[in-house]
Amino acid sequence: MAAPEGNNNSAQAANFKAFLMKKGAKSGQSLYEHLTHLLTKVMDEHPDDAVDVIEEMSRNVKQDVFKGLRSTLRNVSQSSAAELLAEQQRLLFTPKDDSAQTTEMMGTVLPNLNEVAFYLEQAGVGLGREETQRVFLALKHLVESESLTHCRLWGKILGRESNYIIAEAETEYRDEEEELKQSAEEAPEEEKEAEAKEKFPVPRSTYKPPPLVPKEAIGTGANKYVYYVCSEPGLPWVKLPSVSPAQISAARQIKKFFTGRLNHQLLTYPPFPGNEANYLRAQIARISAGTQVSPHGFYQILEEEGDESDEPSQVSYEVNPEFEGTPVDEMAKSLSTWVHHVPHILRQGRCTWVNLAAKQQKDPNEDEEADEEDEEEHDEPEPEVGPPLLTPLSEDTELFNTAPWTSRLSSTLTPQHAIALLHSNLWPGAHAYACGKKFENIYIGWGLKKSGAEYSPPLPPLPQQEYPDGPEITEALDPTPQEEQELRNALEEQQEAQENMEETEEEEEEEEEDD
Predict the structure, then answer these.
(1) Three-class DSSP category at 191
(2) pLDDT in tens for each of the 515 residues of the chain?
(3) What string of DSSP letters covers 202-216?
(4) Which end of the chain is more exposed for a tag (fewer CB within 10 A), N or C?
């Protein structure tokens, strides 16, 4: 018997309502409740185009349900790198000490960077007025925190990730830790090997490594000044280590852009003995030796008396009190009015040549006769001599068919108020100006020397030759069994013949005795 039709409709309606009352897994709300709220909203608002805005109204109904679950607190905004840097640079504008003694000391040590920037601006060179002011305040904090007797802005070297702002300074005392580190580096290798032999005796080798070129003492030569660097004004100043001749020699053979990270390890050929901080210090020494210039007559030579040691006497200079200045137009026309006041770095990597043959220690276990023979065979090397101090720029040689310097006036329209400008073509980024008794040098560039053609890294050395072939060291092939048997038979025959010969000799001797 079939069920009444009214009962089927009511059952289907109940099932459909139960389906609509099923709650969603994400929202926790059923479709029946959502449609109820949506229709109630339509009846309350009576929108003109209900069919067109029904989707937007449905979205609003869902948002109203979750409004109570959302937090009304705003997300904490994270400070950007520019804001953090501005917070650190804000400390530059905070005065520390206004005592009369500090003010007098700052007036003699701290350079007038605003005046330097004014003259460099006429040459089209500079860091910009805002950055110059921040660098000036950073130098002020450096002078206040360190015991410096001389301080100036050396320049700025650009890097791929960040740049280096470099300050050149001179201190009253030598760093004891630096001296200890330097003496440890210069310790003879033979002493270290002797200590190792006492602990672990090994067969003695006759090989003698070539002697290392000793590093120049702090305050002399390439280590006359100390250098501090920072990536941005307001960040801490970092003191660069002293430079060694090996680092200068390696820096001359490679070409590497700076990254801006002092602890970055360089991967070059030939390998560089140090990280980017050492490479930066070597490039600073090379740039200073090649581009630091001054007007002729501003400095005068001051010979220092040599001591009893083997070290040669250092040639230095001092300000000439009788210098009255050189006309600007004359300095712009002639390079002979400019001179180098930084010592030239020799091929040895030092400003003063050192005799390595005399400094090489002799082995006490060797015979004296062998030492005398070695001394007779090896002649004394000729000392390397570079251009003397305060050499005019007119004597600089051309490289790659390029003049080493370009000089000009800052303005040809008003030459009576112009200044003399000098630009280096071998070290792009090195500039100098002179006006009366005032002059200054600055470097702003990538820290690389100009090359005549595209740079090609040096090729690795040729592999060592193999030991020459010969019958003494050539391995012979193993004989075959047949060859071994033939050799054995030949030896037996030779032995039998020798025995027969001996027997015959004995018989002849017996016959002679019987006779």
Answers:
(1) helix
(2) 445 555 677 777 777 777 777 777 666 678 788 888 888 888 888 888 888 888 888 888 877 776 655 556 666 677 787 888 888 888 888 776 655 555 555 557 888 999 999 999 998 898 888 999 999 999 999 998 888 888 999 999 999 999 999 999 988 765 545 554 555 555 444 455 555 555 556 777 777 778 888 999 988 899 999 999 999 998 999 999 999 999 999 999 999 999 999 999 999 988 999 999 999 999 999 999 999 999 999 999 876 554 444 455 567 888 888 898 889 999 999 999 999 999 999 999 999 999 887 766 554 444 444 455 454 455 677 888 889 989 999 999 888 888 999 999 998 898 888 999 999 999 999 999 999 889 999 999 999 999 877 777 778 888 877 777 777 777 778 888 898 999 999 999 999 999 888 888 888 888 777 76
(3) -PPP---PPPPPPPP
(4) N
Q: Closest by alpha carbon to 391, among 293, 303, 302, 284? A: 293
Q: State phi, psi for 484 to the nearest 5 degrees.
A: -65, -40
Whole-angstrom distance, CA of residue 343 vs CA of residue 338: 15
**Tokens at 472, concatenated:** 């003494």
The answer to whether the predicted template modeling score (pTM) of the entire model surpasses 0.90 is no
